[in-house]
């Protein structure tokens, strides 16, 4: 992609995020939240709630109306049957498709549908080659905050692979006044975890005890536990991968680990409860911003662009923290999960 094409793609993904945000907030403003918490479907990817169904048809309509006709694109999205190919323009044959766009329309439905915490509209684009694209092929991404009813501002972060911090556009918008301000991205520079947030994902009862065992063993090995004082490592279970990425980007959190694909099979639970590629599709923005996203064994996070592959990942605010944790985490995982 040329620089001009990358910028056009970034703006398109931001516009898509804006449309999803406005769709959800408009539905809430019109009092259409009664069915948000209803279970609408159970798929191989996830549980689909009423709030999820709200965005599916409008997104397809948006692509039909807004996506450039000379940029044939295939959609990979939670809520779309993977056995069916969804291409825009609809008349384009699959072999002519130029891009794959992976989307999580509302990442964090469980928090948003109860009006507890922001969700995020996630979208990323990969050029098509001779094989099915993967997370490592993603070139442009945008993540758009979908606010709770009491929020007065919302954030949006977008960027492209290889651009570094200068290639990221981060903005804070006041929907009432329409003003937009630059949002500083400052991943934490802390060299330890004391008096900071560092969390291991344990959103559901399934696998929680094993996750906690790993977590406690890690902090003990690192010397971060001190039974003589009050707890000094704080835990935050933000049920949104996009939201977790945001917390690292803006400097709120120092470490977030999602080990569910490793833990759930050991605990006897299905991996469908884990993170999937559409959840982590904007994750490469962490590396561009100077933070670190990798697998628990220190490799790049990669998976096919689909809605079912389980993905393990860990995000560090900086390289000092990563170098401190990596070898100890490997040791702990080998001992506990062997």
Would you summarize the structure shown here?
With 338 residues, the protein is of the alpha+beta class. Helices cover 30% and strands 22% of the residues.
Written description of the protein model:
- This protein has helices spanning 3-29, 50-66, 109-112, 208-221, 241-249, 260-267, 284-288, 319-337; strands spanning 39-42, 47-49, 73-77, 87-88, 99-107, 119-127, 140-146, 154-160, 168-173, 180-182, 196-200, 233-234, 253-258, 292-294, 313-316.
- With 338 residues, the chain is an alpha+beta fold.
- The protein has two domains: 3-182, Fructose-1,6-Bisphosphatase, subunit A, domain 1 (Fructose-1,6-Bisphosphatase, Chain A, domain 1); 196-337, D-Maltodextrin-Binding Protein, domain 2, CATH 3.40.190.80.
- The protein has an eight-stranded mixed β-sheet, sandwiched between helices.
- Helix 4 packs across helix 8.
- It is globular, with a radius of gyration of 20 Å.
Termini gap: 44 Å
Write down how many β-strands occur, each being a DSSP E stretch of 2 or more residues: 15
**At the fourth CATH level, what is the homologous superfamily of the largest domain?**
Fructose-1,6-Bisphosphatase, subunit A, domain 1
What is the molecular shape? globular
| SSE order | HEEHEEEHEEEEEEHEHEHHEEH
Classification by helices and strands? alpha+beta
Strand neighbour order, sheet with most strands:
4-3-5-6-7-8-9-10
Show unreliable segments. Answer: none
User: What number of structural domains do the residues give?
Assistant: 2
Task: Indicate the mean pLDDT.
Answer: 91
| Biggest sheet statistics | 8 strands, mixed
The CATH topology annotation of the largest domain reads as Fructose-1,6-Bisphosphatase, Chain A, domain 1
The CATH first-level class of the largest domain comes to Alpha Beta
Q: Given the structure, what is the number of helices? A: 8
**Radius of gyration over C-alpha positions, nearest whole angstrom:** 20 Å
Roughly what fraction of the amino acids lie in strands? Answer: 15-25%
Q: How much helix, percentage-wise, in residues?
A: 25-40%
| CATH architecture level-2 label of the largest domain | 2-Layer Sandwich
